[in-house]
Design brief:
This protein is 37% helix and 6% strand. The protein is mainly α and 199 residues long. The chain folds into two domains: 21-108, no CATH class; 137-198, no CATH class. A hairpin with a 2-residue loop joins strand 2 (68-69) and strand 3 (72-73). 13% of the residues are buried. It binds zinc ion. Zinc ion binds at residues 176, 178-179, 181-182, 188, 193. It comes from Cinchona calisaya. This is Reverse transcriptase zinc-binding domain-containing protein. Keywords: Signal.
Length: 199
């Protein structure tokens, strides 16, 4: 079950990862004709309907090498060449040719080094919310670190109040150890507990 969840998550990230990779075409043997970003109008599987892909090759899984003959592009020809496919052919400048003597090179285009890095991948995947206007009131060189840390846990709803400890499976008394008048929750601790209400 955990495996299928992991696999589902990886599959969800697949489209994002694809956006980060393009191909410098060599012999076309490592590159997917339909899925990889090897041409200005690719990934062709997303740009064109399946019928157009079938003009180029019999299967969606075909390699780019299936449309390379003797170092030249073997574009589909004749009456079957529909407008969408023609657009791809016409968008290929004369200098854009396969290089049969070398392998395809995959470029991780979101890192200046062109090489995959965990840092650049995390940056791409992260959707950090913008800074709040009051953060300077909490984080600063001269502030008490424990206070800042407790506020961070509170904002993330990870403070170990008794209701959290109970949800983690600990067998403890749920009531607030300070006033005993209610269960200890975040809202009780910061907004309802008589002392914090006075503050
Ligand atoms: Zn209380």
């Amino acid at each position: 079950m955990a495996w299928s969840w992991n696999l589902r998550m990886v599959m969800m990230l697949r489209d994002i990862a694809w956006e980060c990779i393009n191909v410098v075409v060599g012999n076309g043997k490592q590159t997917s004709l339909g899925y990889d970003d090897w041409h200005d109008v690719s990934p062709s599987i997303k740009v064109f309907p399946p019928a157009i892909i079938q003009l180029f090759s019999s299967t969606n899984e075909a390699k780019l090498s299936s449309i390379i003959r003797n170092g030249e592009w073997a574009w589909p020809k004749g009456r079957m060449l529909r407008a969408e496919a023609l657009a791809m052919v016409q968008a290929s400048p004369s200098y854009f040719l396969p290089k049969p003597d070398i392998k395809d090179v995959f470029i991780w285009k979101i890192d200046p080094s062109s090489i995959f890095s965990v840092k650049s991948a995390l940056k791409k995947l992260s959707t950090y919310p913008p800074n709040v206007s009051w953060y300077k009131g909490v984080w600063g060189k001269h502030y008490v670190l424990e206070h800042s840390f407790i506020l961070m846990l509170t904002c993330r709803r990870r403070l170990a109040t008794t209701n959290m400890l109970l949800s983690w499976g600990m067998e403890i008394d749920a009531s607030c150890p300070l006033c005993k008048s209610a269960n200890e929750t975040l809202s009780h601790l910061f907004f309802c507990y008589p002392f914090s209400t006075m503050v």
